[in-house]
Amino acid sequence: MNDIDVRARGQLPPIVVIVVVVLFTLTSAGANLIPSHRPTPAQLRAEEMTAVIEQRRERIGELRTIGEKCEPQAAHELARLYAMDGQWQEAHAYADRYEQRCGADYVVRGWGNAPHRRN
């Protein structure tokens, strides 16, 4: 007796395409299950700000030794860094000390009197 082929011609390519699509779908679903941490823009900004703050505080430490001399450029930078770092009382006290030692300097006084947030 002759075997009857139940499968019609041309069915194999669509089955292969369907199997490939299903495999691709399952593969991409599996890849999405793998956790990956992508920092948010806010986290990136916070990291950058942390680095800037650390650099500023290091520079303040360097300038504290130089700042007690009458070098206007160093005094301007130190007063500015104090104010930017939120050390308002230190900036004001430094401006007072600088004026007593070296005379009036409007830049140092300006940073010493810089407006600040009151809590």
Number of helices: 5
**Rg result:** 35 Å
Total DSSP E strands: 0
Beta-strand fraction estimate: under 5%
- The N- to C-terminal Cα distance equals 99 Å
**Low-pLDDT residue intervals, each spanning 5 or more residues:** none
Please give the share of residues in helix: over 70%
Mean pLDDT: 87
Description of the molecule:
With 119 residues, the protein is mostly helical. The mean pLDDT is 87. The radius of gyration is 35 Å and the shape is rod-shaped.
List keywords for this structure.
single chain, mainly alpha, 119 residues, 0% strand, rod-shaped, 71% helix
Could you outline the blueprint of secondary structure elements for this entry?
Elements: H1 12-33, H2 41-67, H3 72-84, H4 88-102, H5 106-112
Structure summary:
This protein is mainly alpha-helical and 119 residues long. 71% of the residues lie in helices and 0% in strands.
